[in-house]
Amino acid sequence: MIVRARSCRAGASGPRGAVPTLNMVPRRRPTPLLAAGATMLLLGCLVLPSHADSLPSFIKSPDDQTGISGGVASFVCQAVGEPKPRITWMKKGKKVSSQRFEVIEFDDGSGSVLRIQPLRTHRDEAIYECTATNSVGEINTSAKLTVLEENQIPHGFPTIDMGPQLKVVERTRTATMLCAASGNPDPEISWLKDFLPVDISSSNGRIKQLRSGALQIENSEESDQGKYECVAINSAGTRYSAPANLYVRVRRVPPRFSIPPTNHEVMPGGSINLTCVAVGAPMPYVKWMAGVLELTKEDEMPVGRNVLELTNIRESANYTCVAMSSLGMIEATAQISVKALPKPPTSLIVTETTATSVTLTWDSGNSEPVSYYVIQYKAKVSDNGFQEVDGVATTRYSIGGLSPYSEYEFRVMAVNNIGRGPPSDTVDARTGEQAPSSPPLHVQARMLSASTMLVQWEPPEEPNGQIRGYRIYYTNHLLSPLSTWQKHNTDDSRLTTISSLITDITYSICVLGFTSVGDGPPSDVLQVKTQQGVPAQPSSFKAEAELDTRIMLMWLWPVQEPITKYELMYWEADSGNKLHVTFSPAGSYAVEGLKPDTLYMFSLAARSEMGLGVYTQPIEARTAQSTPSAPPQEVHLVSLSSTSIKVSWVAPPAASRHGAIAQYTVAYQAASGEDTERHEVTGIGADASSHVLEGLEKWTEYRVWVRAHTDVGPGPESLASLIRTNEDVPGAPPRKVEAESVNSTALRVTWKAPLSVKQHGQIRGYQVIYSQLENGEPRGQPNILDVALPEAQWKVEESTDYEAIITGLLSETTYSVTVAAYTTKGDGARSKAKVVTTTGAVPGKPTMMISTTIGNTALIQWQPPKEMVGELIGYQLQYKRSEEEAYTVKDFRKTDGHFTATGLHKGATYVFKLCAKNRAGNGEQYVKEITTVDDSPSGYPQNLRVVGLTTSTTKLAWEPPLLSERNGRILQYVVVYRDINSQQNSTNSTADTQITIQGLQPDTTYDIRVRAFTAKGGGPISPSIQSRTMSTDMPEFTKNFGVKAVMKTSVLLTWEVPEAYKSEVPFKILYNQQSVEVQGKMKRKLITKLQPDTDYSFVLMSRGNSAGGLQQQVSIRTAPDVLKTKPVLYSQGPEEGGRLTINLPTVQTKAAVRWYYIVVVPVTQATAQRWENPDEMELDDLLEASENPSFRRRRRRRQAESLKPYIAAKLESLPTTFTLGDEKKYNGFYNRPLPGQQQYLCFVLAALTGQDSKTFAASPYSDPITVEMHSGMSKHTEDPEMLWVMGPVLAVVLIIIIVIAILLF
Asked: Strand ranges (DSSP E) for 809-894?
């Protein structure tokens, strides 16, 4: 056993009073050489003065003090030097000596306190000297003491307001000695302990003086005990508090166990930790002992807690925990008991047997009590393990349920609380006999002659003893009791003959076996015609359902009968319509084409050339269940509340159930809202006809489906039923509520509707609730303004703004405003309150007149308002050109009456607004518009540029002249252009800011300018630009720029490049402020990362010719996102090799879809890198395959060589599920089997109608799926490829053989 002591120490060292540890150092005698050296060193020290000797110096000097008669004075003096100096006190040249004078030394006499108490007014007033002396010399310092009478105490002299009090504290606790003093200036407080200054700095923070003056001692020690005084000092004098004692009490508690060791039982070789914890004051040391052997080393003895680790325990033992301190020693013992497994029971014997039971008795074999016994037994001929009887409490037990006449072996084990012991020796026993419990097997008969029959059989499966013989019963009256039948006995043989039978009739035969105990049951009746050559009735006729539409029939071949064929009759159990089938001789027959879960009856007869034998008695069998072929009927939905819907249905028609309905599934999906995922409720009981869907979103339209399940699987879903949950009050307040003051009596409130997912019903209107506030609190009842929405506004966008004007308010008054929406169910939550204050009463409109002048100025004159409220303090004028956004604002004094606006533009309309102001704010505005006089433009059009070129045209664009230079409305532009080699100008005019000049010469440079005109004439002409038309010799760089296919986030653009075009300069495609470059010889480009259902315009440009501009353009609209969910694997169960069934996504669009394509993408490293989603795939190969069957065949051969995406099916409508690899054709596309050990992705491609180009919407990729299949399937897929390789190789080999044969012969 391994013993290890592990300590958990309470601190770094033992507490006071703990058992001491003695460290003994052996004393060694020095060698003579060392002794001589030491002597010489000592003599050197005596002869030579030390270089470290120094004159004393003061580190603390006494200070002058002013005390009070009857009080205390204390002077502190301390010096350092080498050797240490001693301190003496002198008064008037004499050493101090008096009963009232006390000298207290510290630091070995190098420090000293002179304390005088009580003070006397005239006797103690003096200068006191402190002298520090050592062997090197002495130094002096002095301090003056002044003693005042009580009536001489000056103003501001320190006063002790609260002094320290007697205090008792336990050691290690915190003690606080209080002190508070006052004076002018505020006195400083210091502390004395036993008349010596308290050195706070050397306490390592344990002793500190608080701001209040109090002295705080943490983790108090016995050395802190003493008499404490606080001293208050300021410039007026010094005052001492009355002393107070601090007592530090040390607790002394003998040791005791807080966690004593406990007894344990362990298994042999087990491990355990023994914990022992002791407490006391001082804390005790803890050790472990085993008898007299100490397990804890003396120098490793922990304090308080000790854990003993015991491992690999093999025998029981006692362990003692000892706790000791200076106050005593205690101990506690733990017993460790090693438990053993019980011994095997003895004397196991069999005391009694019957045909089905054996009684056993045994002895315990254990001196210790056992918990119970376990009996194990098995049949000796069985390969199975022992069976067990557990929890046997006695030593006698009968085991029942055994097979008759069978040999068994038995053994017993004892069990205690440790476990099972070894088994006892085994005993064997054979059960008694019983009559057979099963009939003879495979009974057959045939006619040896017209009156003699041969009957044969096999022994029973359960003879239950020694078969003594067989009885054969036969009769020509099948319905008579068995006791009336004729009987033929035989010994233990397996065949017999029965003679003297009546010819040409049908006999019924059965056989039973018997033991010494009795007869067993008879076999099934076998019928035979007493006609030689006619087959007997087929025996052991059985039926077994294999599939939901197939039942397998089996029987025994008749003995040596020349059967030519079999005739079978079968019919549904509840129908009289019998069907006849004839087939060649066999021992089994499969009846196909049956109805699932239907009970059928079968009767079989054998035919020979001599005639038809007897039909068997009808046997029955039921076909296996299948999935329902029809959905539940009469699905009805009722909205119970705003969050629940009741779904009711009727079971599928009985003829379509194909089995017992095991459960129903209800699926539902919100058409809109926060959660549009499809959800399913499974496990609805087979007897249920309704289910309540709860926790739904309020006022939301749901689609609901119901399907029935048998034990085989689910049937089809019902058609989707639509219903909307009931209305509720809105679940959120209106958004973006704002309130502003309109004037002194009105507020404007604006808001937006709650989010549609939070409206929970049809918003019928809004309530604007407003209250007057006084000091931030509402005054009186709130007022409600109802804003009912007309029916035309019920269906509005979330961005619609609503507005209400609250009138009839008080001026300069604060109001709180909230808004709530309501449905027919009531009001929803109110918005957060907006606090707004109405303005004071403001002035009315002033009178304004405006006169324009020729010099681009306007004179504005005004008169005060006729309706003036309050004191007029000024005016405010705002004006701007009508095309501009911001107003120019001018403020005027109340005495001003006119203003001249300068810098106005010609031919422009200006808006002027003037209002009067009082202290409440701006009044009502007077608004007036004026138009200045037109003139011809004073500036030319801006940014003239070429935006397109051909060999005979140039397209130009420009911007109007600057706003300040237009001088009126621009009516037209005139473009002036000429060949630079000619002086003849040509002109074209337009009202637009662009024009295409026609009829130009190829490869010619033109000088172009433009001029703007108003009604008053033309302005200056712009600077010229030059442009060169394209050359007729320059080949056209592209043609037929168009769209091949449009997806929801991509578009495939194509064009043709003439053979004569040799440019290596890339093309550029511009679209929606983005551009991409394409190599000069490429003829297509897939543009990706577009937005669904969005308009785009694409421009193809060539950077390599002199045109340098716009060449060709196409516009498209990307496809809507109609397939938002991905196909998922339909996990109904394993399928045949090469097939996978998937659930297809739901189409979420009202747009017409022309075709649906099921696309399969084999996963390779290339596909993973090229196509992150289906929209990044160039679909033209797939699309051409849909139009060109021969291309499709060629493509299929290429795909056999390399894994490429392909279309598995083309469908007019999208089913719920689809099976990939079913080897069928769908509108010309072959759904080929999927090779195994290969991952696939699939997606659905919808071809939309009503588009100019080919527009497609793709679903997301499915998750990767893999086909599991047998090895043969994989080989089958590869065989065609191997033929292409092996065929030519074999041909070459054959030719070589022929050539060699010709050469040899």
From this structure: 814-823, 826-827, 834-837, 847-852, 858-863, 874-881, 888-892
Contacts of 772 (CB under 8 A, 6+ apart): 778, 779, 780, 810, 813, 814, 815
Strand partners, 612: 607
- Which pair of tokens denotes residue 283? 């804390």
Q: Is the dihedral of CA 941, 943, 949, 952 positive or negative?
A: positive
Contacts of 756 (CB under 8 A, 6+ apart): 672, 798
Would you tell me how many other CB atoms lie within 10 Å of the CB of residue 1285?
Answer: 9
Q: What is the pLDDT of residues 659-714, one digit of tens each?
A: 889 999 999 999 888 888 999 999 999 999 999 999 998 888 999 999 999 988 89
- Which two three-digit tokens encode residue 1251? 């588009």
Alpha helical stretches, state H, 711-763: 756-759
Express each pLDDT in 834-845 by its tens digit: 999 888 788 888
Per-residue pLDDT band for 3 (boundaries 50, 70, 90) equals very low
Q: Give the residue from 281, 330, 332, 329 showing the smallest Cα distance to 308.
A: 332
| Residue 40 in this model has a pLDDT that exceeds 70 | no
Report the run of H or E that residue 1189 belongs to, with start and end.
Answer: helix 1189-1201
On average, the pLDDT of the chain sits at 84
CB atoms within 10 A of CB 1269: 21
Residue 865: CB atoms within 10 Å: 21
**Are residues 116 and 72 in contact, defined by beta-carbon separation less than 8 angstroms?**
yes
The DSSP symbol for 714 reads B
Distance CA 31, CA 310 (A): 51
H helix or E strand, kind and range, residue 1284: helix 1271-1304
In tens, the pLDDT along 253-300 reads 899 999 999 999 888 888 999 999 999 888 999 999 998 899 998 888
- C-alpha 920, offset from chain centre: 59
Position 703, amino acid: R
On whether the CB atoms of residues 1096 and 1074 are closer than 8 A, the answer is: no
Q: Which amino acid is at 582?
A: T
- C-alpha distance from residue 747 to each of 768, 811, 1188 (Å): 11, 11, 72
Query: Going along 757-806, which residue ranges are E strands?
Result: 765-774, 777-788, 801-806
Which one-letter DSSP state was computed for residue 151?
Answer: G
Distance CA 131, CA 78 (A): 10
What is the helix (H) or strand (E) element at residue 1210, kind and residue range?
strand 1206-1211
- Written as six digits, the tokens of 422 are 């070894």
Between 366-370, 415-419, 1188-1192, 1211-1215, the lowest mean confidence (pLDDT) is in: 1188-1192
Does residue 778 surpass a pLDDT of 90?
A: no
Beta bridge partners of 5: 308
Euclidean distance between CA atoms 529 and 496, whole angstroms: 17
Please provide the size of the chain in residues: 1305
The whole-angstrom separation of Cα 1100 and Cα 118 is 114
Report how far residue 1253's alpha carbon sits from residue 464's, in angstroms, rounded to the nearest whole number: 86
Confidence of residue 439 (pLDDT cuts 50, 70, 90): very high
Task: Provide φ and ψ at 792, rounded to 5°.
Answer: -65, -20
Q: Burial level of 334, CB count in 10 A (0-12/13-18/19+)? A: buried
Cis peptide bond upstream of 714, omega within 30 = no
1031: left (phi over 0), alpha (psi -120 to 50) or beta: beta
pLDDT at 884: 86
- Dihedral over alpha carbons 127, 132, 137, 140 (to 10 degrees): -20
Helices (H), 921-1026: 963-966
Max mean pLDDT among 354-363, 575-584, 1054-1063 falls in: 354-363
Q: Do 669 and 677 contact (CB within 8 A), yes or no? A: yes
Q: What is the distance between the terminal CA atoms of the chain, rounded to a whole angstrom? A: 95
Residue 1146's pLDDT is 81
Question: 1170 in helix, strand or coil?
Answer: helix
Q: What is the largest CA-CA distance in the chain?
A: 171
